[in-house]
Structures are given as structure tokens and as C-alpha cells.
Design a protein that fits this description.
Among the domains are: 1-53, Ubiquitin-associated (UBA) domain (Helicase, Ruva Protein, domain 3), CATH 1.10.8.10; 115-153, GTP Cyclohydrolase I, Chain A, domain 1 (Orthogonal Bundle). 19% of the residues are buried. It is globular. The N and C termini lie far apart (88 Å). Helix content is 59%, strand content 16%. It has a three-stranded antiparallel beta sheet with strand order 1-2-5. A two-stranded antiparallel sheet has the order 3-4. The model has no long low-confidence stretch (mean pLDDT 87). Helix 5 (88-104) packs antiparallel against helix 8 (170-181). It has helices at residues 5-15, 19-28, 33-51, 82-85, 88-104, 116-132, 137-155, 170-181, 199-216; strands spanning 58-66, 71-79, 161-162, 165-169, 186-194. It has nine helices and five strands. It has 217 residues and is α+β, with helices and mostly antiparallel strands.
């Protein structure tokens, strides 16, 4: 069947994969864009899974400064070879992730980093709210589960919606580049700094201490 250049272009934008691969997927799916997206994602998952056991010890430490020095980001993005580390697509991925971190301010890299105490606190807040709203007891657990998924999506970097394309997560973005390059790519760690962060709180505490001292006298 005839596949239009417009459909190939749209599929490339939605998946981040190459032109020939997108065209082949559209042929396989009889021109259906949504089915082609699913088809390509399943293939990508299989390819990424095969690469998951490899060691990624090369890569880059990327820095990004935003807003005239108000926000700074450092991240370590790993790949398998120094050749890939110099690849334009790999460098573009590091830049995009750093930009996302600056904008979205994630608290954790992955779910594994979330403290159990924080999770229990969020669950308790969600449960109390659901009960206060009069939700039936039998659906409260489902509501809490949904709230926790939302919590992960908002706070965990890999699960956040990519700021430049909310149709995909940051993890999806990494998987796309992994598929295109053909090497294992992992985001190992990141740090985000914002000018003045925490200072106001310390000033407030100091003000409270002074107030107590004055009251005591």
C-alpha cells in the first residue's frame, strides 16, 4: 500500500525512530498510525531488554545552567562506548534531560529512591482525603493506588512526562535513543540547584528563634 510522507513524518515525531523503520511499521500496520506506534514500541522494548544486561560505563557528565544562573543541573548519562558518548543523538539526549530536570524539578531518579516513610505519609494523606469525601470503603484502596501512581509521575524523574513532549516519559525518551543507537543507555544520577533554595526557610527558623528569645525575656 502507499504510505504518505506526512504519515511517516508524524510517526517519527511520535516515536523518535528512523524514517525507514517508521515506513516499514506503517506498511505492517496498513497505514494505521496508532497501531504503528504500538508496533514500534513493542519492538523497542524487546531491543532495550536485550541490551539491559550489558555494562554501560562510558558516557558524559553534562551540565546545564538556566535563567541567567538561577538554576543549575548536573547529570551522569552512561553508554557502552566512548564513541557513542560523542554521538550527537546521545549528547542531545543528555541536554534534553538536563533541560527537563531544570523545568520539572524531580525529587528522585527512580521509585527505588523514594523513602518508605514518605510513601506511607502520601498514602495516609490520600486515604484520609478519600474518606473525608465520603468515598465507599471498597474503592478507597483503588483511589490511594491511583494517587500514588500520580505521586510517582510528578516526583520521579524517569516517570515524569517529558517537558518538550508530554506524550512520552523521560524513560521513554531514553529508550528511544537506546533503540536508535543500539547501545545500553542509563541515567545514573543527577543534581539540581536553584539559587536561594532553602535560605528562606533558614531565615524563618532564625526569626522564630529570635522571637522565642524576646518572649522569654
Amino acid at each position: 500500500m502507499s504510505i504518505s510522507a506526512k504519515d511517516v513524518k508524524e510517526l517519527r515525531e511520535r516515536t523518535g525512530l528512523g524514517m525507514m523503520e517508521c515506513k516499514k511499521a506503517l506498511v505492517e500496520c496498513n497505514g494505521n498510525l496508532d497501531e504503528a506506534v504500538t508496533y514500534l514500541r513493542k519492538r523497542s522494548e524487546k531491543k532495550v531488554e536485550k541490551l539491559s544486561t550489558r555494562i554501560a560505563a562510558e558516557g558524559t557528565v553534562h551540565s546545564y545552567v538556566h535563567g541567567n544562573g538561577r538554576i543549575g543541573v548536573l547529570l551522569e548519562l552512561n553508554c557502552e562506548t566512548d564513541f557513542t558518548a560523542r554521538n550527537d543523538n546521545f549528547q542531545a539526549l543528555a541536554k534534553d534531560i538536563a533541560l527537563h530536570i531544570a523545568a520539572a524539578a524531580p525529587s528522585f531518579l527512580s521509585r527505588d529512591e523514594v523513602q518508605q516513610a514518605d510513601l506511607e505519609k502520601e498514602k495516609e494523606i490520600a486515604r484520609e482525603k478519600a474518606i473525608a469525601e465520603g468515598k465507599p470503603e471498597k474503592v478507597v484502596d483503588r483511589i490511594v493506588t491511583g494517587k500514588m501512581e500520580k505521586y510517582y509521575e510528578e516526583n520521579v524523574l524517569l516517570e515524569q512526562k517529558f517537558v518538550k513532549d508530554p506524550k512520552k516519559s523521560v524513560e521513554d525518551l531514553i529508550k528511544e535513543t537506546t533503540h536508535n543507537i543500539g547501545e545500553k543507555i542509563t541515567l545514573r544520577r543527577f543534581a539540581r540547584y536553584e539559587l536561594g533554595e532553602g535560605i528562606e526557610k533558614r531565615e524563618d527558623n532564625f526569626a522564630e528563634e529570635v522571637a522565642k528569645q524576646v518572649a522569654g525575656n
